[in-house]
Design a protein that fits this description.
This protein has helices spanning 3-8, 14-23, 27-36, 76-88, 103-112, 122-132, 142-155, 168-177, 186-198, 203-206, 208-218, 239-257, and strands at residues 39-42, 53-56, 64-67, 93-96, 117-120, 159-162, 221-224. By secondary structure, the protein is an alpha/beta fold. Strand 3 (64-67), helix 4 and strand 4 form a beta-alpha-beta unit. Helix 2 crosses helix 3 and helix 8 runs antiparallel to helix 12.
Amino acid sequence: MTQLEKARSGMFSEEMEICAAEEGVEVEYIRQGVADGTIVICRNVNHKTIKPLVIGRGLRTKVNANIGTSKDGNDLPAELEKLALAIAAGADAVMDLSTGGDLAHIRREVMNNSSVAIGTVPIYQAAVKMTDAGRAVSEMTADEMFEVIEENGRDGVDFITVHCGVTRRTVAAMEEKGRVLGIVSRGGSMTANWMNCNNQENPLYEQYDRLVEIARRYDMVLSLGDGLRPGAIADATDRGQLQELIILGRLARRAREAGVQ
């Protein structure tokens, strides 16, 4: 059972007990918040070496630190040093946003050396695997996208950012209106380009139930990324952004109905 399923059944999990003690609140407050969807507990079933991280309404504000390699700067010891410094400074979670080198190995080393929750953006690894194989990112198949997501879950990643709301409809709405800065999200732009090149819908939207099934298997929290967030004030609350937010709200509800945070 996931934390959400336990909360809805009235159970107090070990993670809820730990989080309540950390926050100085009653465990029932945590359980009810998880059940209502206003609180999430981040701890993959395969990542028991960390303390569970609770995020949500009425709780202490959490700080997330981003680290990661790039094509021009691929130094694993440096990333592990960043990780240690972030944790020492009080970061509650760390995201490995690596885009250079052996991403699977880097992620596993980050997780092995972390005492806090770890998040990733799986499409980065999927894209790097394509380019390393001498293939265009647009040639990626839906199965290849989901294989990487499954790998992240199996390795113990606690939360993943997925750009499910970047759909043909939302991108068309954005393009019809026009933008000063276009799509500023890296994952959002990758997804939009994939749809454009393949003349197909975003697999993470079209096959959303498949994504939810993977997340449920590992009790991995879904961070539904705002791929059409504005990069300029002039683009704020335009048609594309608002359409995406509506879609993400519906997808969040579907995830919770399936027992996924």
